[in-house]
Design a protein that fits this description.
Layout: H1 2-22, H2 28-32, E1 43-51, H3 55-70, E2 75-86, E3 90-99, H4 102-109, H5 112-120, E4 127-134, E5 137-140, H6 156-181, H7 189-215, H8 229-253
Antiparallel strand pairs: 1-3, 1-4, 2-3, 4-5
Length: 254
């Protein structure tokens, strides 16, 4: 009986202690035993591709962006880093904006004020992308689609052709080998499909796709770096002919 009363008293004291800690100004930070400055703040890293001859215009436009963020609730600070030179007369600028809470950062990213500034800056920067971080861990990009996430990679149609070029032979060879060996004949269809997809994804990601990107590097250029007509034609023809050759070979084998 005495032991039970002692345990109950300890639980009550612990519960009261937690309530007092959570009621302090630091809230959850106090419970963790950390001050507010010890915890990473939600941030967004924005990358811009800017023509070298528009650097001053970009600086002026960027100051307007920072002022917009400063007017938003929860803004902490903005960091802008020295630009990096990229090919063909372009500079790559990086900006990091910090807010107190993830919701406050998200509200500014989706604000009409920021949207208007982006429209005004279209004539200054060629493309941009951003990644958001919550409490020091990568959380989400923007929940919007389209231009928020594109602009620095190859055009979508080139990416599609490159993926099909690498994926098609894997699926064909894998299906041929597994059928001959009968490895998954005793498995239920759902489990067999999962195993097949795991094998395909591993081979595609770790073995095939890095080689495809290296071989077609002259053609898989970022969208802002326009290639000559000759390069575009050669890359497209090589990719299509490689697909046609694989179709012919697999048709003969089957």
């Amino acid at each position: 009986m005495a032991l039970q009363e002692s345990v109950t008293a300890n639980i009550t004291r612990l519960r009261d202690r937690l309530r007092r800690r959570l009621a302090t100004s630091n809230g959850f930070r106090a419970l963790l035993g950390k001050e507010a400055s010890d915890l990473p703040s939600p941030s967004v890293i924005i990358e811009y591709i800017v023509p070298s001859n528009k650097s001053w215009a970009f600086r002026s436009w960027h100051r307007r962006v920072v002022k917009s963020a400063q007017r938003s609730q929860g803004f902490l600070r903005a960091d802008r880093y020295r630009p990096l030179a990229v090919q063909e007369g372009c500079l790559k600028w990086y900006t990091v904006l910090h807010f107190e809470q993830p919701d406050q950062l998200r509200d500014w990213l989706q604000s009409s004020d920021r949207e208007a500034l982006l429209k005004a800056g279209r004539d200054i920067f060629i493309s941009y992308k951003f990644t958001s971080f919550e409490t020091g861990m990568q959380g989400w990009f923007s929940n919007e689609a389209g231009e928020e996430l594109t602009g620095l990679g190859p055009p979508a149609w080139k990416e599609i052709l490159a993926v099909v070029l690498g994926l098609y032979p894997i699926i064909m060879v894998q299906g041929f080998v597994l059928e001959r060996l009968g490895l998954f004949d005793d498995w239920d269809p759902a489990s067999a499909m999962l195993a097949n997809n795991l094998i395909t994804t591993c081979v595609f990601t770790l073995v095939v796709m890095p080689r495809i990107v290296r071989w077609l590097n002259f053609w898989l250029r970022p969208a802002h770096r326009r290639a000559s007509v000759g390069v575009e034609v050669v890359g497209t023809v090589v990719t299509v002919l490689a697909m046609a050759a694989m179709v012919y070979v697999f048709s003969e084998i089957a």
